[in-house]
Specification:
The complex is a heterodimer of chains A (157) and B (103). With 157 residues, chain A is an alpha+beta fold. Chain A is 24% helix and 39% strand. Chain A has helices spanning 2-23, 29-32, 39-42, 47-53; strands spanning 60-61, 65-68, 73-76, 80-86, 91-98, 105-110, 115-123, 129-137, 140-152. In chain A, strands 1, 3, 5, 6, 8 and 9 form a six-stranded mixed β-sheet that branches. Chain A has a three-stranded antiparallel β-sheet with strand order 2-4-7, with no helix packed on it. With 103 residues, chain B is an all-beta fold. Chain B has a single domain (6-101), classed as Immunoglobulins (Immunoglobulin-like, Sandwich), CATH 2.60.40. In chain B, the strands form two sheets. Chain B has a four-stranded antiparallel β-sheet, with no helix packed on it. Chain B is elongated. In chain B, 40% of the residues are buried. Classes of the chains: A alpha+beta (157), B mainly beta (103). The A-B interface holds A 21, 24, 26-27, 31-38, 42, 78-81, 98, 101-103, 105-112, 114-116, 118-125, 154-157 and B 15, 26, 28, 30-32, 45-46, 48, 50, 53-67, 69-77, 85, 87, 89, 95, 97.
């Protein structure tokens, strides 16, 4: 008996929490889709096309963009850690491009003011390739690259 | 509904470091199954992190992000006991929101 009452309390509690979240507007679909997915850029197949699709013009090579915890040689192409830090003031977004993947663009991060322009994730790489970090700062684009050798590809089966 | 995310948020100096481990297949659409048919792409497209209802990170991902994606970032401010929320949406329209308490 007591157990049942516990369960009821739990489900009841869960429901009201969900309702609360919905009421606070956190789960409104338009909020979730606010960050639109840039299909044109993600469909591109070369670094030049990606840069063009993102409207980046001719990005400036920059030494203020650094890679951290990124290996020179990745044993497993399915899981390659990539960390990017931008020391350029006014950094608005950081994109990670992998030159020899079927689709060049891997990820775009929009960095609002107050968030440090330094983040890391893990990506797949089909083969050894250059990776590019494309940074948008104050409306201008900057780029840096690094070569990663892959011993075992992470795309295709 | 997909499995919950593992979110860890820690105060480091005057900022908060957030680490997120999501549970998602991240199928590229490039692989073929045993019958030679292409396995359709299935991956997270957008990730949004909010702190006190204010966005601290918006990300757009392609299928090149690894299976069970990992993400780490830092934002200024944040105090112990406050909440950080992370939401992802995949290309099938599935979504998941989880939150963590800053420690």
């Amino acid at each position: 008996m007591d157990n049942k009452r516990r369960d009821l309390l739990k489900t009841g509690g869960g429901l009201s929490l969900l309702e609360l979240i919905a009421a606070a507007g956190w789960l409104k679909p338009e909020d979730v889709f606010a960050a639109d997915w840039n299909k044109a850029a993600f469909d591109t197949k070369s670094v030049e096309d990606t840069i063009k699709a993102m409207g980046a013009g001719t990005p400036t090579q920059s030494k203020d963009i650094t890679f951290f915890s990124t290996p020179d040689i990745a044993e497993n192409g399915a899981v390659v850690p990539v960390g990017v830090t931008s020391a350029i003031p006014g950094t608005e977004s950081i994109a990670i491009l992998i030159e020899k993947n079927p689709n060049t663009l891997a990820a775009v991060f929009d960095v609002p003011a107050g968030t440090e322009p330094s983040l890391s994730t893990r990506v797949k790489m089909g083969q050894s390739s250059n990776i590019y970090a494309l940074v948008k700062a104050d409306g201008k684009y900057y780029v840096a690259s690094k070569e990663i050798k892959v011993t075992l590809g992470g795309c295709g089966g | 509904m997909a499995d919950p995310m593992k979110i860890r948020a820690n105060v480091v100096g005057d900022s908060t470091e957030v680490k997120v481990l999501m549970s998602h297949e991240m199928e590229t659409g490039q692989r073929k199954d045993a019958q030679g048919k292409t396995i359709p792409a299935w991956f997270i497209q957008t990730v949004t992190a909010t702190y006190n209802g204010k966005p601290v990170l918006n990300a757009q991902w392609g299928p090149a992000v690894s299976k069970n994606p990992f993400l780490s970032f830092k934002f200024k401010g944040g105090a112990k006991g406050e909440k950080v929320q992370v939401t992802w949406v995949d290309n099938r329209g599935d979504k998941r929101t989880d939150e963590a308490t800053i420690a």
